[in-house]
Write a structure and sequence with these properties.
Blueprint lengths: L13 H7 L2 H4 L3 H17 L5 H20 L11 H13 L1 H4 L7 H37 L4 E6 L2 E7 H26 L1 E2 L15 H7 L4 E2 L3 H6 L2 H28 L6 E2 L18 H24 L13 H25 L1 E2 L1 H10 L4 H10 L4 H18 L8 H7 L7 H5 L1 H7 L3
Parallel strand pairs: 3-4
Antiparallel strand pairs: 1-2, 5-6
Helix pairs in contact: 3-4, 3-7, 3-9, 4-5, 7-8, 7-13, 8-11, 11-12, 11-13, 12-13, 15-16
Bound molecules: arginine (ARG).
Length: 435
Amino acid sequence: MKLWAGRFSKEADQITNDFNSSIAVDSRMFAQDIDGSIAHAQMLGAKGIISGEDSEKITAELQKIKNEITDGSLTIDPDAEDIHTFVEAVLTERIGDAGKRLHTGRSRNDQVATDIRLYLRDECDSVSGLIESLIAVLKEKSEEYRNTVMPGYTHLQRAQPITLGYHIAAYAEMFSRDLGRLSDARARMNVSPLGSGALAGTTYPIDRDMTAKALGFDSFTENTLDGVSDRDFCAELAAALSIVMAHLSRFCEEIILWCSWEFKFIELDDAFSTGSSIMPQKKNPDIAELIRGKAGRVFGDLSTLLTMMKGLPLAYNKDMQEDKEAVFDAFDTVKLCLQAFTPMIKTMKVLPDNMRKAAAEGFINATDCADFLVSKGLPFRDAYKAAGELVALCIEKGLTLENLPLEEYKKVCELFDEGVYPAIDLNNCVKRRGM
Ligand code: ARG
């Protein structure tokens, strides 16, 4: 029997039931749903809206239901309309009238809004924990490779010498900003909508502050229409997660390039690579490619949320039931990707000789060569031109700036002396840049 059986003279069609049901998606919020109901029941008891006895009965039975779902002795009915309906139905079946009093002064609209915020608050904490572990690994690696010279690139062309440690530290910065974005969004989300009712609050003398505090919220939503229909936090979190994925995806793209024979800067551990079914020589960076691919999913989740919300009049509309699948998918995907990415980075083998060789062949000290002439008093534009001529000369002679004889330097510009060699030494170049 449906919650709204009084108004209706017919049972819903099976297709309507299945189509309407969100249990497959929202059952994962059972613990948050029950916690919210316990807070509500205790408040109702404290305010004398229901009896203290009913309030206690409800609390005790809800706690039992939560334990039973957790240990698997109570299975969530896949035919239930949603998790809220299921929990209330089990409660009422077990304790009768007291159970029927739980929903006094509440609606599923403020209930679901409360549940999602509670659930996502935990999800935020677990993703942040995973990002913190990744940053710790990146900091270790950045320290380990702080003297490993490699070419830095712009336009994917060898540009100036950097160290691998410095390159990795750039990603640590990016992920630290991600942590900041998640914590900002979490703080804005941590406000209780409970007590907003269906849309216009309630006539019962409820205590919104009490339920907010019991559930660990910082405060409660001021406007009840906004309380039930705000899903900004879902979009904000999906946006923050999209940026996490964009960062992971960029890093993965570099890992994939670095693993190629053309670069061979790193080798992934066998445990984090895959082979080919036909080509025996292959070792593929599938994890990195999949993470790069899954970025698209998370961007899609953000787009789903914004598009779903953009045309909705106030207040609650059933469209909003679609919020959970999108935002849960974004969290699931990011967690999965971080769980695979961090150990892949931790175990990757770096090939410093290949990095150094690429750095040496790339004339990436040409800027430093020009800077040497600047230190001798030549204007930068002239120095730049002289260094360019030297690069062309080296290419013609099959030499590098390091092994080009001094007389050749002098032919291009009289100001060169022995000091040019330490000035263009790659180790000195990165040191001078403070890497
Ligand atoms: N399953 C619904 C959701 O996820 C719960 C709220 C239903 N409210 C309603 N008035 N139909 O949005």
